[in-house]
Design brief:
By secondary structure, the chain is mostly helical. Helices cover 80% and strands 2% of the residues. It has one domain. Strands 1-2 form a two-stranded antiparallel ribbon. Strand 1 and strand 2 form a beta hairpin.
């Protein structure tokens, strides 16, 4: 038999190419959902900060002129935490559509809550810090996707450090130490910068395992992955804003 007309391929190479394509497909879905969430949050934040009728839904003005949360403002402040828990604990029970709607609702409520930054910081400062955050996030995302180093142990360490930062933040709520707040903010920048690389690598590995099919479970995993990266971005942005933001 003449074998010159046959194109033999190494099965290992074929599998490697297939996994790479699956990873790219899955990661692109994750980032698409993440960007959608950020757009919704950004628009909601700006509109609820600049439109008086919308702002009145969230904020109330006391007789002494002090601005505080209206009932809906408290909902916007705490409901996102409940939705994050819902998406995590109810992953197996929620349908893909329910998962997507929950993520969109979460992004909207986060935007309503984050509209308060426009009351505290100069608008130009918010924009400049946002672009700095985007540059840092993008750099670490590329690093996480391309590095050959396994970041699993690194991610576990960062999660333990994050727990320590959360405890320190709760303690500082009673201490009201500006110095401690700066330390916590710098720690958050380091932690969420590292978590960005870790989470992107995790999404890449998940994509290689689940494949590029349109299964509903894969879709839910993409939405939940987007939530992780969204939280990395937002927390990095807020930490940088506390450090470099110009207050009004």
């Amino acid at each position: 038999m003449d074998t010159q007309n046959f194109n033999f391929q190494d099965p290992i190479n074929v599998q490697s190419v297939s996994s790479d394509v699956a990873s790219k497909t899955f990661v692109s879905k994750v980032f698409s959902w993440m960007f959608l969430g950020l757009v919704i949050t950004g628009l909601a934040s700006y509109l609820f900060a600049t439109d008086a009728s919308l702002a009145s839904i969230i904020y109330s003005i006391a007789p002494n002129g002090r601005v505080g949360f209206a009932p809906m403002g408290w909902v916007a402040a705490f409901a996102p935490f409940a939705l994050v828990l819902l998406m995590g604990a109810g992953f197996n029970k929620l349908s893909y559509s329910a998962m997507a709607i929950t993520f969109i609702a979460f992004s909207l409520l986060m935007g309503m809550s984050l509209s308060s930054i426009f009351l505290v910081y100069a608008t130009s400062s918010i924009y400049s810090v946002f672009f700095i955050t985007a540059a840092m996030f993008g750099l670490m995302a590329v690093l996480g996707y391309t590095t050959k180093t396994d970041l699993t142990k690194f991610g576990s360490l960062l999660m333990m450090l994050l727990l320590g930062v959360i405890i320190a933040s709760v303690v500082n709520m009673f201490m009201h130490s500006s110095g401690m707040q700066y330390i916590i903010s710098f720690a958050c920048v380091a932690i969420f910068t590292g978590l960005t690389a870790y989470d992107v690598q995790k999404m890449k590995n998940i994509g290689a395992q689940v494949g590029s099919n349109g299964d509903a479970t894969v879709g839910k995993m993409a939405v939940y992955g987007a939530l992780s990266l969204y939280l990395d971005f937002i927390n990095l942005f807020l930490a940088l804003l506390r450090i470099f933001g110009n207050r009004k």
